[in-house]
Amino acid sequence: MKFLSEKLGVAPEKQRLILVAYFVFFVTGMTSTILGTIIPNLRDAYGLNYLVSGSLFTLHQAGNLCAVILAGFLPYLIGRKKSVLILYSALAIGTILITASGFPILLMTAYAFTGVGRGTTSNITNVIVSESSENKGAGLNLLHAIFAFGALVSPFILLLASSFSASQGWRITLWILALCMIVSFFLFATSSLNNKPEPRSSAVEKKTPSSEMSSQSEAEALSGIPFYKSFDYWLNVSILLFYLCGESGNMGWLVTYFKDTGLMGQTFAQMTSSIMWIMIMAGRLLAAAISGKVNKSLMILVLAFLNTAFFILMISTRSMPLIITGLLGTGFSMSGIYPTTLSTMKREYNSSPLSTGFAIGIALVGGITMPVTVGAIAEKVTSSALAQGLSSAAAEKAGVSSGISAIAVALSIMLILTLIKFIRERKSA
User: Which of 20, 84, 206, 377 has the fewest CB within 10 Å, making it most exposed?
Assistant: First the structure.
């Protein structure tokens, strides 16, 4: 509690709410990693091809997008708490459905449901932390560090569950996570999150003559509407979009890439998710500590450069020391890009459910398109290789290697955008 009040500037009446937000995002982090990590298990158990496998994570991100958009508007109709509880419940429903059947339509529906729950928590927790903490840069980086901690824990739960039942370990893991989601649901239900409909704009209140001094600009700032007029807002959203291309591509395909190329066995490949998230968590904690001491645009640029370079290193070699180096570097360098970019937006933008939801929603287009793009490329190359007479193992290796290369293109575009952001800030200064 002392840390919250002193380091983040959280008022006493907001401390329990922000702790609930951190716990819920921790559970969401656990779920996000598992949904990608278990794809090889789903392929083995249900006989899925690369295109269907990529579609699962794409539908997760599509559900994420729908929820983020709904979370931006629904609070104005029924209030924050009710909207959060309704949308968040889809996470537990989808998680349980994944264990029920391998029928593709049911699996796709389940992954879409998990995306709805994840998008809800992504929106509301970012808004809660932005509104409740004076040092929002540190608060947001800490929030995403906790997400990373959850993400690195869940593969260990999978490993432990698999040690008891090799074939059912992934189902046991999902059931454990569903239980955590139910706990999160009741924490939100009993929190101080406002259940009254949000006012559409505080600018509609009657103004006295003295209140007219900032008239238009203040009304717009309070309403959170002018985000669509800001070039810098859209530049930040574009950076987030291509960052999420890289993140969703990695989370959805990295384990499958390591396994199907023969670089690692399935157990070790699944543990790479934890290795990456350890580095992400460490990087986000460091970013939270130094966010108020360094130029944020420069930090984003450096991280984007390192992220691109380490990822290319990781997928362009078969040397295990270089692969591990690339993996560690990729995780560490991607750590602070998303929360730091989000924190550089104006406070009236990222403390508004509407503009925050719109930013995260547009950025999620990257998360939606990249997994299915990787899967489509992998499936096409695999089919072509099989037609040329290659063995199934060799064809899959060629396919997944080609598919994963698309992520490097997205990261390169992100790097260019962060350079533009840095140059614009220098010129403005």
Answer: 206
Residue 319 in this model has a pLDDT that exceeds 90: yes
d(CA 205, CA 149): 43
In the numeric block, the tokens 């997928």 are attached to 315
Q: DSSP labels for 46-59?
A: H---HHHHHHHHHH
- d(CA 110, CA 98) in angstroms, rounded, equals 6
Four-residue CA torsion sign, 42, 44, 47, 49 = positive
CB atoms within 10 A of CB 16: 15
Distance (Å, whole) CA 333 – CA 243: 11
Angle at 169 between CA 185 and CA 266, to 5 degrees: 120
DSSP for 152-167, written as a single string: HHHHHHHHHHHHH-TT
Tokens linked to 374: 């990787």
Cβ density class 323-341: b for 16+ within 10 Å, e for less? beebbbbbbbbbbbbbbbb
Q: How far apart are CA 399 and CA 383, in angstroms?
A: 8
What amino acid occupies position 18?
Answer: I
CA contacts within 13 A on the Cβ side of 244: 27
- At CA 110, angle to CA 26 and CA 127, rounded to 5? 35
- Please provide the average confidence, as pLDDT, over all residues in the chain: 83
Sort residue 265 into left (φ over 0), alpha (ψ -120 to 50) or beta. beta
Number of neighbouring beta carbons within 10 Å of residue 94 = 28
Query: Which of 156-160, 264-268, 283-287 has the least mean pLDDT?
Result: 283-287
pLDDT tens for residues 399-412? Answer: 999 999 999 999 99
Residues 6+ apart with CB under 8 A from 164: 172
DSSP 292: T
Distance CA 167, CA 197 (A): 47
**Burial, 166: exposed, middle or buried (Cβ in 10 Å; 0-12, 13-18, 19+)?**
exposed
Q: 1 by DSSP, 3-state: which? A: coil
Q: Tell which phi-psi region holds residue 74, choosing left (phi > 0), alpha (psi between -120 and 50) or beta.
A: alpha
Q: How many CA atoms lie less than 13 Å away from 50 in the CB half-sphere? A: 28
Q: Tell me if 426 sits within 8 A of 396, measured CB to CB.
A: no
